[in-house]
């Protein structure tokens, strides 16, 4: 209930239309309840008294009431749908905007598949709750109370006879509602599982094919799918016993009415019209009960969905502006200092991924980070744009703690080429301009040239206008990486971060990229992560990371003298073609991986 309350603001925006829907619904009840009274009149004053005029007149009134009721019901549906759909749209917008504010840690915890379900199925379930409530919400209870009162009004003694039956019926209904709720919840959970399996498989369908695991995945999916079916059938079977049970109650009730009412009628205490009206009211007390069980299902799944929607909306992004956050000065130099930084991902409280990191990146210089897979290189660089916040220690930019800088202002200074290249569907030009949408073609071309992407782009069928398919399916790994580098360069960052961004590019092209990055036109501090040593040779400083700690740092020559680890890496990758006392090989041409 509380969960619905939290989403109330989304409904309140449409309160006028919601109120209109509800008032129409309420007026419908009055018409519903007037019908048995009119039937009573036709029988008692028309048929029995053989008064044709009353029969015709009353019949016409009933036709008119049916017409008006239909119009009212249409109006009610119209406004209910409008409110429901508008609420759903606003919720999707709200969720989407919220997810945009998520930091990496938040995204680690809430998986993509789950977030997608929140935006689609959960919003739909909540929409149903709103719509169904507006369509039968007031009608069911009012009909019930109204017809009960009218039953008593018609014949208090008959109403009294009905009391035990009504109690039994209520017990049956409550039993069904109580039993049904957990059943529906399991179906919902199984559906969630199905969604997860589906999401994982669709995203990884290439891999499934490549490893010929289609049969295995097929079975896994079938098993989950089967569970959903079994649970749904279980619920439906259970529900299908409910309507017959209620019908039985009604039938017994009708028999009792006719029997007890018949006796009273023989004694002249009750008219035939009254008996018929009473039977009708009896039925109208029962139908809302069936409606209410339907309502209760929709409410059960609506509340579950509202809870999950609220989880997303209530997430406070892990990384956000401090109250006293500063804008970043446009004259910034781009000097980064790591002071005693340590870091662990949430949950892994025991082993920190990074420990005691002390590192200075001077403005305009290039620092290379070298280390084995899993040593913490990506983690380290992700701390600079505050994708994650440090667990201990401090990172400063030009002397200011980065947590004191406005997040947007910080992002504006930094361009990152992530380890996994992500391209959007659109043209090559759109992709390069992603971070700087107003850049001119000249600027785009300059960035593409520096990233050594210009030549191959021109060789594409439509040059810069070539359409890139979803996730860059029509480009090679190295081509994608170079477009991603061009995209980063075009934002003219103070700090450029390359996370193994040239791993799929050949050594010669990589050297050209490095030469271009070193040129005056792109003056920035550069942090470059690499696994191959040829990438780092010419950096101003090389940092060797081993198991989350800095094992050594210095220039190539210094490390060759002082660091065993570095020498090992060097020997294993470049063989013994070079010697300690040789100058750093310019261009590193001819070296093989
Ligand atoms: N999002 C994450 N959540 C939890 N652990 C992570 C996450 N990303 C990386 N790790 C762990 O942190 C360690 C360092 O990973 P990473 O920085 O990606 O290494 P590298 O880039 O050097 O290959 C690894 O043990 C990895 O399993
Ligand atoms: Mg990495």
CATH architecture of the largest domain: Up-down Bundle
Shape: elongated
CATH T-level topology of the largest domain: ABC transporter transmembrane region fold
Bound molecules: adenosine-5'-diphosphate, magnesium ion
Rg calculated over all Cα atoms:
36 Å
* Fraction of residues in helix: 55-70%
Q: In the CATH hierarchy, what is the superfamily of the largest domain?
A: ABC transporter type 1, transmembrane domain
Structural commentary:
This protein is of the alpha/beta class. It has 2 domains: 2-314, ABC transporter transmembrane region fold (Up-down Bundle), CATH 1.20.1560.10; 336-579, Rossmann fold (3-Layer(aba) Sandwich), CATH 3.40.50. The chain is 62% helix and 10% strand. It is elongated, with a radius of gyration of 36 Å. The protein starts with a helix and ends in a 19-residue tail after the last helix. The model is unreliable at 577-593 (pLDDT under 50).
Question: How is the topology of this model organized?
Answer:
Blueprint: H1 2-12, H2 15-47, H3 52-100, H4 104-109, H5 112-136, H6 139-154, H7 156-203, H8 205-210, H9 214-240, H10 242-266, H11 272-314, E1 336-343, E2 354-361, E3 366-371, H12 377-382, E4 392-397, E5 400-401, H13 407-413, E6 414-417, E7 426-427, H14 428-432, H15 441-450, H16 454-459, E8 467-468, H17 477-489, E9 495-499, H18 507-518, E10 525-530, E11 541-546, E12 549-554, H19 556-562, H20 564-574
Parallel strand pairs: 3-10, 3-11, 6-9, 9-10
Antiparallel strand pairs: 1-2, 1-4, 4-5, 7-8, 11-12
Helix pairs in contact: 1-11, 2-3, 2-6, 2-11, 3-5, 5-11, 6-7, 6-11, 7-9, 7-10, 7-11, 10-11, 15-17, 19-20
